[in-house]
Amino acid sequence: MERKIEYGWRLRELMAARGMNTISDILPHLEDRGVHLSASQIYRLIGSKPERMNIVMFGAILDTLDCTFEELCPISVVATSSQIRTGTGGPSATDSDTFRPQRARILPPS
Q1: Domains parsed from the chain with CATH numbers
Q2: Residue 76 burial by CB count (10 A; 0-12/13-18/19+): exposed, middle or buried?
Q3: Of 53, 98, 72, the residue nearest 7 (C-alpha)
Q4: Where does the pLDDT of residue 98 fall: very low under 50, low under 70, confident under 90, or very high at 90 and above?
Q5: DSSP β-bridge partners for residue 2
């Protein structure tokens, strides 16, 4: 069994709960904490979950929204079944003829 880590990103929800509905509402708060981002960077941060993030920026967001890590980014562990590849499940040498196209025969006009 493999374990896969999944995470959520609730920045938009937490901003709305605190009355911050636009990018310009959170931008000055982040700048007060030393994080300088453009409007398009904040738009992407709000709209989609990031794969990597600067820890200072993450701390500034937590402080601005007065929330915990778990509230902003809930983590869950999902058990997945790992399949061992043995090489017996694919097509065999006799099956390879079914995957090849049939050769075309060009005949002279009659």
Answers
A1: 2-80 (1.10.260)
A2: exposed
A3: 72
A4: low
A5: 80
Residue 59 φ then ψ, to 5° = -65, -40
Which pair of structure tokens corresponds to residue 19?
A: 């009355």
Q: What are phi and psi of 89, to 5 degrees?
A: -90, -15
CA–CA gap between residue 32 and residue 36 (Å, rounded): 9
Average pLDDT over residues 67-93: 78
Q: Which residues contact 48 (CB under 8 A, 6 or more apart)?
A: 9
* Cα–Cα distance for residue pair 69/54, rounded to 1 Å: 14
Phi first, then psi, for residue 79 (nearest 5°) are -85, 130
* pLDDT of residue 45 exceeding 90: yes
